[in-house]
Design brief:
The protein is α+β, with helices and mostly antiparallel strands. The protein is built from 14 helices and 18 strands. The termini are far apart. The chain has a 6-stranded mixed sheet, with helices on both faces. The chain has a 4-stranded antiparallel sheet with strand order 12-11-16-17, with no helix packed on it. The chain is globular, with a radius of gyration of 33 Å.
């Protein structure tokens, strides 16, 4: 496990007894090796500013946590860190047992990897350990399954038919955009290099979208224009834009790849999530000269599209598909593979309504508050599905066994991801508008019906109260399965199941034992009889009345002693 840079309530993870001892080791029972993120121990002194100096940073981290290894840069002198730890152990400040436990975990890992068998690196157990053909095949399959068709509107094309899949007899295709001919942009950051790379040499396999389309449609005339740059803050070359518009107008179909440059971590932070580099205005011009335009999004995060998705006939989200992206995207475009991906995020429509969560509270569910570009779970197919027979059978105290029938009413085989959402109608802690409680991907041949089945546990619809106790509430719960069009859905209702976690008080006790924080759960006051309450109210009324008289006398006496005539006039009977 690797801890990261965050602070929880101001406490950096690298020095958090609560996170790395109590939660990780005690609650999650993790027995393996724990490593820091880059330079995180020294960051306690020069980034988080919770330690006085580097020596104290080492002590704070090892004394408060169960960290076994500090990830450091090449400029960090290892001997100085080791010498500091040794000195703190010898002085008795740092417990020697703590270091021995860490050493045991490290040696155990090396033993499991075979490093102690005379080899400085793990020995090969098979003929291939990394980037094997089987690994690449699995990656390719994962990419194809993840590709998400967000729009395929027949009303937007000149033929009155959906643009995708492209006809095998298409005569001309205008391919545009940097990401259509750049494996590095499809791979993103942490590929070959920290920030990624645009250098093709680093990739030993794979193809670009342009290359794959060219191979797949040998009879079509295919042109390519880079168009606008995807770099943040860049502008478009007017001559390049002009040339691309000429090719777009002459083509039967236009494929435009939009996105962003490769990035990772802090250098990838941006101030504006709007699609960069003038791509928005460029796409507007392309759509104006050719209605048969496919938008291919190649991005590692949602970039606001400022309305241009409405101008596209089809929209395909590829995320960061990697070196396999060219072939996978072309399989979907050509219809060799029927898309089945579902959007794993809520895609924002504007900058100001990001970020959005599908599991928002009901109070944030009004039309003005929730207007995404695409909802969580959106994902179209080249075939059509009909849902029916959603049934949930009670199996307490476990939960509900739910199933739904999925009929492929189209002409193409396809996979359907059945997403089961739950919404409790009311409860003491405000309920979510929706919550995924399970899913199953089912392959449904054309003209057949298959069944998706899941188990909805009582924990998947519970909530945690103010004292971190898990609660099940007995109000009704709607279970819904959304279709690919997000409209022809099916819903059933189950009775909520009431329960309360019995160990939550013990959890608070563990918190206190590990943090020293005295966390007291409020208890209800003892009940009182009606006569006792009446007597209490009478006594309190007499006391308050008497205190008021005494206070008034003291005030009058003080004002008169000051000889304030104006104030005195106010104390005359008529004035009073």
């Amino acid at each position: 496990v690797m801890e990261n840079y965050v602070e929880v309530n101001g406490r950096p993870t690298a020095a958090s007894n609560m996170m790395l001892n109590f939660l990780l080791r005690d609650m999650f029972n993790f027995k393996g090796m724990l490593v820091t993120d880059y330079n995180e121990i020294y960051n306690l002194a020069n980034f988080h500013y919770t330690s006085e100096n580097l020596t104290e940073a080492i002590f704070d981290s090892y004394n408060n946590t169960s960290i076994d290894m500090g990830m450091v840069g090449i400029d960090t002198p290892f001997p100085s860190m080791a010498d500091t730890i040794l000195a703190q152990v010898e002085s008795g400040r740092l417990d020697e047992t703590r270091i021995r436990v860490t050493g045991a975990r490290l040696m155990d890992l090396k033993q499991k990897l075979g490093v102690l068998d005379g080899s400085p690196v793990p020995k090969r157990n098979t003929s291939c350990m990394f980037a094997c053909d089987s690994h690449r095949a699995s990656a390719f399959d994962a990419v194809r399954q993840s590709l998400t068709l967000l729009k395929n509107d027949a009303n937007m094309t000149t033929t009155g038919k959906p643009l995708l899949p492209l006809s095998p007899t298409v005569k001309s295709i205008a391919v545009m955009g940097q990401a259509c001919d750049n494996i590095g942009l499809m791979a993103g950051g942490w590929t070959i290099a920290w920030q990624g790379t645009a250098d093709r040499i680093g990739f030993g396999y794979g193809s670009t979208i342009l290359e794959a389309l060219t191979a797949r449609y040998p009879g079509a005339m295919i042109t390519y224009d880079q168009g606008c740059n995807v770099t943040e803050g860049s502008t478009c070359d007017p001559n390049a834009v002009k040339k691309s518009l000429i090719n777009a107008a002459a083509a039967e179909v236009v494929v435009v790849c939009l996105g962003e440059t490769h990035y990772a971590e802090k250098p990838g932070d941006i101030d504006d999530i709007t699609l960069p580099g003038g791509q928005i205005g460029w796409f507007q011009q392309i759509a104006a000269v050719n209605k048969n335009t496919l938008m291919v999004l190649v991005e590692g995060r949602p970039r606001v599209l400022a309305g241009i998705a409405d101008l596209a006939a089809s929209v395909l989200h590829t995320y960061l598909p990697g070196p396999s992206g060219g072939e996978a995207v072309t399989d979907v475009i050509s219809g060799a593979y029927n898309p089945s991906g579902r959007l794993p995020i809520t895609y924002p429509r504007t900058v100001n309504n990001a970020p959005l969560q599908y599991n928002r509270r009901m109070c944030a569910n009004s039309a003005a508050d929730y207007q995404p570009q695409w909802q969580f779970g959106t994902g179209l197919s080249y075939t059509t599905f009909a849902l029916s027979g959603l049934v949930c059978s009670e199996m307490m105290p476990i939960g509900w066994a739910c199933s739904v029938n999925i009929a492929n009413t189209g002409t193409m085989d396809g996979a359907f991801t059945a997403l089961f959402f739950a919404r409790q109608l009311w409860r003491p802690i405000a309920p979510e508008a929706a919550r995924v409680v399970g899913f199953q991907k089912v392959f449904v041949p054309a003209g057949t019906t298959q069944t998706a089945q899941i188990m909805v546990s009582i924990n998947s619809v519970s909530y945690f109260d103010e004292y971190n106790c898990e609660i099940g509430f007995d109000a009704p719960i709607d279970i819904t399965v959304f279709n690919t069009d997000q409209t022809s859905n099916v819903t059933t209702q189950v009775a909520g199941y009431a329960f309360r976690q019995t160990s939550c008080t013990n959890w608070v006790g563990l918190w206190q034992a590990n943090t020293g924080f005295n966390y007291i759960i409020p208890t209800a006051p003892p009940s009182a009889s009606k006569s006792e309450l009446t007597e209490a109210y009478f006594i309190s009324s007499v006391v308050c009345f008497g205190a008021g008289i005494v206070g008034t006398v003291i005030l009058i006496t003080w004002l008169r002693k000051r000889g304030n005539q104006k104030a005195g006039s106010l104390l005359e009977p008529t004035a009073i």
